[in-house]
UniProtKB/TrEMBL annotation:
It is found in: Cytoplasm, Cytosol; Cytoplasmic vesicle; Golgi apparatus membrane; Golgi apparatus, trans-Golgi network. Residues 425-456 have a biased composition (Low complexity). It is a peripheral membrane protein. Residues 3-65, 470-535 form the DUF1899 domain. This is Coronin. Belongs to the WD repeat coronin family. Belongs to the TIM16/PAM16 family. It holds the Pfam family DUF1899. GO terms for cellular component: cytoplasmic vesicle; cytosol; Golgi membrane; PAM complex, Tim23 associated import motor. InterPro entries: Coronin, DUF1899, J_dom_sf, WD40/YVTN_repeat-like_dom_sf, WD40_repeat_dom_sf, WD40_rpt. F-actin regulator involved in anterograde Golgi to endosome transport: upon ubiquitination via 'Lys-33'-linked ubiquitin chains by the BCR(KLHL20) E3 ubiquitin ligase complex, interacts with EPS15 and localizes to the trans-Golgi network, where it promotes actin polymerization, thereby facilitating post-Golgi trafficking. May play a role in the maintenance of the Golgi apparatus morphology. GO terms for molecular function: actin binding. It comes from the Eukaryota. Its main location: cytoplasm.
Length: 1050
């Protein structure tokens, strides 16, 4: 860019994708390593996934699946942290990874919807310690640059025994490596502040080096155009900066720019075709875009993009995957804590989306390697052939042959067969590249499908996924409501409550009859309250259980409401027997003491099926099983390396799961082995955790903390712990561990922590999305614990699915969780399945230890007087709207008026006799006016205006009658006023032209029969015929006297 020439990319604009185009379901790891934590090919996206040890990679696709959603899966790559990764520029499915376990592995990946390979295609053992960097060569196939702690290595993957070259050892940690675009030189940046440029084929020492960096903090180096290098790092004031260097003279930089102040490393991404440079800092919400030019100014800022989430890593999508018709010149993928956000950089142009703008897209490097690693090592400098990005000039996709490629020696035969069976791409050698790579067209008009041109119809599963993607996951418990019961059921005025119980303890424990609460009184005293006696406790001292030492954990026997087991700080477990009618006096002597642990006990758990069987964990890192029948230890389990956070028996009572501070989740089969039968990575955080079996024992739910001390729920498959968590969901940030209660009847898990005010509720499913969040419950004040009662305590008439007791500082309050329903008069059998009678033992401890397995009975919660809602009588559907025929037959206001008038006529009858007033002679108008004026005056004086108004109306009616008499003689107009029909209208209705009685009668009889309702006629029309006949008869009766009078006069 110069003064007289404007760059075509100066208006490049970042566009953050909509949220429904983000890749969700991501749990990004926050690890200390030199890589960018995410890499992308034209097809796949790989990123560091959060897991203890860090050996797991997340995998997704650049484009969504057929259902419009992204599938996110995981692959266990290494036994230690994956420090860096890189996709081959010539094979979009080939991924190289390096790790702290001192190995480099090459993986032939499949689509995320398919099962990933269980073993790599190739494993290298450089033997130079921890590996930090891995980088494919830009022009040669099968050639890697590796960064160990202090030594860069050049490795030909076809020679697995040793590297091609081990470059000169650096003075400190190698922080970054970069190949020149033509593949001839390799540049490095180091913690010793040195920049080095190597020609590996000429010499092992650098051809250029200088102490150019100003800080030994993290740095990155990148080849840009021609012979220029770009570095990002920190200056002497520890401010972030970017510098441009001439690789032939590293003593001074050509240009520099200072970035925003932050402690996160600025990761550079460069596009050689456009000269655009993107800089994204870890932990930042800003991505800066610069243009690198060969003339002044060498660095010029183009845009400043503010993102919604903190950046954990960033990767650039290859040029062949861009949407060129939308003028997209660069696309990056921002890795955040919970999602991957695509950010598109577009150049505003007219006709964008309709035309291909060739000036924005010079030919770019293709996907066919220019030479092999051996040819490059022998001095070859061939360059990768460039291809056009024009949609019409891209190569057509070739259909792969149906015959499978046989496995070669470098591949494990088992792995090859598995991959071929899964439909994964295979190759003839670990790093051989297909001679023709399919490059998908980016034109909007291009379609994907079979070669025949037909688009296959979606399968039912795809349709279901599409519907679910539109509607989103839903649960019938999503509107669950929690409510504290009436105050009459509360136990109040609790004094001296112990608020500092260990993290492994639930804080208090309950059963159907009693509540046990630890007290902050010397001697480890425990108060026992009867649930049948709610109310205010007396201010005087109450009888207690004197445990003699501080209480570590305690639990009621599920099969005996009077037996309480208490673990103490003295490594002993004391079993107490509470009287049937409650504590009447202080208990000082336990029924049984279990001894065997050598240090303080963490927690205790009763067996869910066998009576008198107890398990405990201790600071001595052992887990022991006890028989209360014999009072002795019966099993000793080992294998833990640190504190045991939690234990849980499987629903069938065969297996025991533990979660430990050493970052492991373990499953034991106590009757078969003292060592764990399965082991896998657990939560990263070391603040505490809990474990519970869910989904009929198929999964383990672990509540713990991640590396950032955020509370997280993890779901593990009980059949494969080693593969890590199947799913996870963040909850919130809080210091207390979430204590889960799982209801196997509904699949609902209720969680809360000590000191919280919010109770979280989720429905768990054995399939995606695994976690469905429901409405939460908030208590008015912080609670110290929440324990739940048997299902029989629920009021099914009010659709309660769980009832618990909430412990506060001075009270114990019952809380009911209800599902809103309309027809509560019916038993909601879709909510209440037959529940397990877990409060009755299925077998004895001795029977279980001898190998027997029991099973709980089940019972229905349906009251006898309630009908299941599934058998409720079907109500006839109520029409919201009347049928259309009703509206079509509805009469107008005029029709209704006519019918009413006809009915009145019929009721009055057709009276032809003249009325008495018709024979009266009217007075002169002058006389009538004088008389009426006197009446009006008198009326106003007597009754006021109302009477005057009535007389005025009568006067108007009299004048109308007088005018009628003047027109028709002595005959009155009464008949006309009744029928309300003119002579012309009556003639039209009866279709008569002359007023003859014969014609009128004939037409009347015909029209009356035709419009009779019994033959489908209309009562309305029939009434009009009758009125027309009356009007014509009236006219005939008037005309006859007039004719006689005229004949007499003549």
């Amino acid at each position: 860019m110069n003064r007289f020439k404007t760059s075509k990319f100066k208006n490049t604009t970042p566009k953050i994708s909509k949220k429904d185009e983000w890749i969700h379901g991501v749990r990004a790891g926050s690890f200390s390593c030199q890589g960018n934590h995410i890499k992308a090919s034209s097809k796949l996206v790989a990123f560091n996934a959060e897991q203890a040890g860090g050996g797991m990679l997340g995998l997704s696709s650049v484009k969504p699946g057929s259902d419009g959603q992204w599938t996110v899966t995981q692959i266990s790559c290494h036994s230690d942290l994956v420090t860096d990764m890189d996709f081959s520029p010539f094979d979009e499915s080939l991924l190289a990874t390096c790790s702290g376990d001192e190995t480099v592995k090459l993986w032939r990946l499949c689509d995320p919807e398919q099962q990933q390979p269980s073993s790599p295609e190739l494993t290298l053992h450089p033997g130079h310690g921890r590996l930090e960097l891995v980088l494919f060569h830009p022009t040669s196939s099968g050639l890697l640059a590796l960064g160990t702690a202090k030594t860069p290595l050049i490795w030909d993957t076809s020679r697995q025994d040793e590297p091609l070259a081990a470059l000169e050892q650096h003075g400190d940690l190698v922080q970054s490596l970069s190949w020149k675009q033509d593949g001839s030189l390799l540049a490095s940046s180091c913690k010793d502040k040195m920049l080095r440029v190597f020609d590996p084929r000429a010499q092992l020492t650098p051809v250029q080096s200088a102490k150019s960096l100003q800080s030994n903090k993290d740095s990155r180096i990148l080849w840009v155009r021609d012979d220029r290098l770009l570095t990002t790092g920190f200056d002497m004031t520890r401010s972030r900066e970017v510098r441009l260097w001439d690789s032939r003279k590293l003593n001074s930089s050509l240009s520099s720019a200072t970035l925003s102040s932050s402690s996160g490393m600025a990761m550079p991404l460069f596009d050689e075709d456009t000269g655009l440079l993107l800089l994204a800092g870890t932990g930042d919400t800003v991505i800066d875009c610069f243009e690198v030019s060969s003339s002044e100014p060498l660095l010029s800022q183009v845009s400043h993009c503010l993102t919604d989430h903190l950046t954990r890593g960033v990767a650039v999508v290859p040029k062949l995957a861009l949407d060129v018709m939308s003028c997209e010149v660069m696309r990056v993928l921002q890795l955040t804590d919970s999602c991957i956000v695509p950010i598109s950089y577009q150049v505003p142009r007219k006709h964008s989306g309709q035309e291909f703008h060739e000036d924005l897209y010079p030919d770019t490097v293709g996907t066919t390697p220019a030479m092999s690693a051996e040819e490059w090592w022998q001095g070859g400098n061939q360059q990768v052939e460039k291809v056009s990005l024009h949609p019409d000039k891209q190569p057509k996709t070739k259909t792969p042959p149906a015959k499978p490629t046989p496995a070669k020696k470098e591949l494990s035969s088992d792995g090859s067969k598995e991959d071929q069976a899964r439909g994964c791409s295979t190759s003839s050698s670990p790093l051989s590249t297909p001679s023709s790579i399919a490059v998908p067209s980016r034109s909007p008009s291009s379609t994907s499908g079979n070669s025949s041109g037909f688009i296959p119809s979606p399968s039912p599963s795809q349709s279901a996924k599409a519907i679910q993607s539109m509607l989103g996951p839903s649960s019938k418990f999503r509107h669950i409501q929690g409510a504290v019961m009436h105050r009459d059921t509360h136990i109040t005025n609790i004094r001296g409550l112990n608020l500092t119980t260990p993290g492994e303890c639930d804080g208090f424990c309950v059963n159907r009859q009693r509540v046990a609460v630890p007290l902050a009184i010397s001697g480890g005293q425990i108060a026992v309250f009867e649930r049948s006696q709610p109310g205010r406790l007396p201010d005087t001292a109450l009888p207690t259980i004197q445990n003699s030492v501080n209480v570590a954990d305690f639990s009621w026997d599920p099969f005996d409401t009077c037996r309480l087991a208490v673990a103490g700080d003295d490594a002993k477990i004391r079993v107490w027997q509470v009287p049937e009618d409650g504590l009447k006096e202080t208990l000082t002597e336990p029924e049984l003491i279990l001894q065997g642990h050598t240090e303080k006990i963490y927690s205790i758990e009763f067996h869910p099926l066998a009576s008198g069987l107890l398990v405990s964990s201790s600071y001595d890192l052992s887990v022991r099983l006890w028989s209360l029948e014999s009072g002795e230890q019966v099993k000793l389990l080992t294998g833990h390396q640190d504190q045991v956070f939690g234990m849980a028996w499987s629903p069938d009572g065969k297996l025991l799961a533990t979660v430990c501070k050493d970052g492991k989740v373990r499953i034991y089969d106590p009757r078969k082995s003292t060592e764990p039968v399965q082991e896998g990575p657990g939560p990263d955080g070391h603040r505490g955790a809990r474990v519970v079996w869910v989904c009929d024992g198929k999964y383990l739910l672990v509540s713990g903390f991640d590396s950032r001390s955020e509370r997280v729920l993890y779901l593990y498959s009980a059949d494969c712990l080693s593969s890590g968590a199947t799913a996870s969901t963040p909850v919130n940030v809080s210091p207390s561990t979430l204590i889960p209660f799982y209801d196997p009847d509904t699949g609902v898990v209720i969680l809360t922590g000590k000191g919280d005010t919010r109770v979280h509720i989720y429905e768990l499913t054995p399939e995606e999305p695994y976690f469905i969040e429901c409405s939460s419950f908030n208590s008015p004040e912080p609670h110290k614990g929440l324990a739940f009662l048997p299902k029989t305590e629920c009021n099914v008439r009010d659709v309660e699915i769980a009832v618990g007791l909430m412990l506060t500082k001075t009270t114990i309050e019952p809380v009911a969780f209800k599902v809103p329903r309309v027809k509560k008069e019916f038993f909601q059998d879709d909510v209440y399945s037959d529940t397990t009678v877990w409060w009755e033992p299925a077998l004895t401890a001795s029977a279980w230890l001898s190998g027997s397995n029991g099973q709980h009975k089940k019972m229905s919660l349906k009251p006898k007087d309630m009908t299941p809602v599934s058998e409720a009588p079907k109500e006839a559907p109520v029409r919201k709207y009347l049928p259309s025929s009703v509206y079509l037959e509805e009469k107008t206001d005029e029709q209704k008026k006519e019918e009413l008038l006809s009915a009145m006529v019929a009721k009055l009858g057709n009276m032809d006799d003249p009325l008495p007033q018709d024979s009266f002679e009217g007075v002169d108008e002058d006389e009538w006016a004088k008389y009426l004026a006197q009446i009006i005056v008198m009326g106003v004086q007597v009754v006021g205006r109302a009477f005057a108004r009535a007389l005025q109306q009568e006067y108007a009616a009299s004048q109308a009658a007088a005018r009628a008499r003047g027109r028709t003689g002595q005959q009155s107009a009464a008949a006309s006023s009744i029928t309300g029909m003119s002579l012309q209208e009556a003639q039209q209705i009866l279709n008569v032209s002359t007023l003859t009685p014969e014609e009128i009668q004939k037409n009347y009889e015909h029209l009356f029969k035709v419009n009779d309702k019994s033959v489908g006629g209309s009562f309305y029309l029939q009434s009009k015929v009758v009125r027309a006949k009356e009007r014509l008869d009236e006219e005939l009766s008037i005309q006859t006297p007039q004719e006689k009078q005229q004949s007499t006069e003549t």
